[in-house]
């Protein structure tokens, strides 16, 4: 999970994610793969790899996580 909304400036309750009216916090206790600047760095890296035309095979050689562009 990448936490792009939990601490977004538009979230009225920073660190809390409610996904339906009268719902409970679905963010607390969930393992986060990428948080804060780490998440932004990861997403920028993936976008740059996709924009550079790197193949899935080349991407797999340097990462255990392969996402199709």
UniProtKB/TrEMBL annotation:
One of its GO terms (biological process) is proteolysis involved in protein catabolic process. It comes from Prunus armeniaca (Apricot). GO terms for cellular component: vacuole. The lineage of its organism: Eukaryota, Viridiplantae, Streptophyta, Embryophyta, Tracheophyta. Belongs to the peptidase C13 family. This is Uncharacterized protein. GO terms for molecular function: cysteine-type endopeptidase activity.
